[in-house]
Design goal:
Strand content: 15-25%
Number of helices: 2
Number of strands: 4
Distance between the termini: 85 Å
Largest sheet: 2 strands, antiparallel
Structural class: alpha+beta
Radius of gyration: 30 Å
Shape: rod-shaped
Amino acid sequence: MKNLVILLVILGVIWYWRSHKAKLPPTAPPPEAPPKAGSVAMSACAYCKLHVPDSELVQGQHGAYCSAEHLRLAENG
């Protein structure tokens, strides 16, 4: 009998806590962090899929490549 009373008290406390928790206003999501000052746009090499900064890409007829060697291999066979 003692265990039943303890169980009922525990269940009552849980019920009370959950019912009052639902009435609280939802918290606002955290603001998104601005992009870092040192971030650089990156693109994937059309040959090996390595991501390289856009400033270092070698442009070819069939896409952008990470090096002149991959440009030669991809476009000349």
